[in-house]
């Protein structure tokens, strides 16, 4: 069965600190996609990144970076120099690469609070 | 529209009432998903449409839940005889094509409170 675990329920940091959000996944599929979404207080899930199982290259987008390691089934997300606007709930999710209409399997989310 | 639109944003129902939640997906998106998000949890899959066809309803928790997308665009999730355990945020998502590879874009959700 597919499963996503986000062990950190809540993280609190002070502005400008770096913070890493952990994500560990389980799947028997050899082809799959991993996602990160951000859910601010407004409630809408905002897409951040998609990664397929064949591409283990790390990615950087501004202050955001992602570390994908198949050997440990992890897809961790780091925010560098955090800002108050980064405060939100962050979800890691998994889907089957080849199956049509596959729903996302979400972790329980990590609530990030950034104070000034 | 520019994004996925859901209405109403908030709904309060008395136990036993029927409710209808609406989702307007991004124009032209083939796939539409409904998810249920309980407080402090991640979204959980309810049902999936490919155009007007409901191809997967394995996540619907009971036969009180019913969804439709008659013309392949707007979708309605209906809950009959609401119970307190139905209280949650109901999220709608759409994606451009078929397949698990595509990005799902989410609406802001409908927060349902059953008293």
Keyword list:
heterodimer; A: 116 residues; mainly beta; six-stranded mixed β-sheet; four-stranded antiparallel β-sheet; 0% helix; B: 115 residues; 11 strands
Compose a concise summary of this entry:
The complex is a heterodimer of chains A (116) and B (115). Chain A has 116 residues and is mainly β.
Biggest beta sheet summary of chain B: 7 strands, mixed
Helicity level of chain A: under 10%
Residue runs with pLDDT of under 50 for 5 or more positions of chain B? none
- Average pLDDT of chain A, to the nearest integer? 92
- Biggest sheet architecture of chain A: 6 strands, mixed
Hey, roughly how much beta strand do the residues of chain A contain?
A: over 45%
What separation lies between the terminal Cα atoms of chain B? 33 Å
How many separate helices of chain A? 0
Report, as a whole number of angstroms, the end-to-end distance of chain A.
41 Å
Tell me, what's the shape of chain A? Answer: globular
User: Helix coverage percent of residues of chain B?
Assistant: under 10%
> Order of helices and strands of chain A, N to C?
EEEEEEEEEEEE
Structural class of chain A: mainly beta
Report the sheet-strand fraction of chain B: over 45%
Order of helices and strands of chain B: EEEEEEEEEEE
Radius of gyration based on Cα positions of chain A: 14 Å
Q: Largest interface, and how many residues on either side? A: A-B, 30 and 30 residues
Shape of chain B: globular
């Amino acid at each position: 069965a597919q499963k996503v675990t986000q062990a950190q329920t809540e993280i609190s940091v002070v502005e400008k600190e770096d913070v890493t959000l952990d994500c560990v996944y389980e799947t028997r599929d050899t082809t799959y996609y991993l996602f990160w979404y951000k859910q601010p207080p407004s409630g809408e899930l905002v897409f951040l990144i998609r990664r397929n199982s064949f591409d283990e290259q790390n990615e950087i987008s501004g202050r955001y970076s992602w570390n994908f390691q198949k050997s440990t089934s992890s897809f961790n997300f780091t925010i560098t120099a955090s800002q108050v606007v980064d405060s939100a709930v962050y979800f890691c999710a998994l889907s089957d690469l080849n199956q049509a209409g596959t729903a996302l399997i979400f972790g329980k989310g990590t609530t990030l609070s950034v104070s000034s | 529209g520019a994004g996925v639109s859901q209405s109403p944003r908030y709904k309060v129902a008395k136990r036993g009432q029927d409710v209808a939640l609406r989702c307007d997906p991004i124009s032209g998106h083939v796939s539409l998903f409904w998810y249920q998000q309980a407080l402090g949890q991640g979204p959980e899959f309810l049902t999936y449409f490919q155009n007007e066809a409901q191809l997967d309803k394995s996540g619907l928790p009971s036969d009180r839940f019913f969804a439709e997308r008659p013309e392949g665009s707007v979708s309605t999730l209906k809950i009959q005889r609401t119970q307190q355990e139905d209280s949650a945020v109901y999220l709608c998502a759409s994606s451009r094509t078929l397949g698990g590879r595509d990005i799902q874009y989410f609406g802001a959700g409908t927060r349902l409170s059953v008293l």
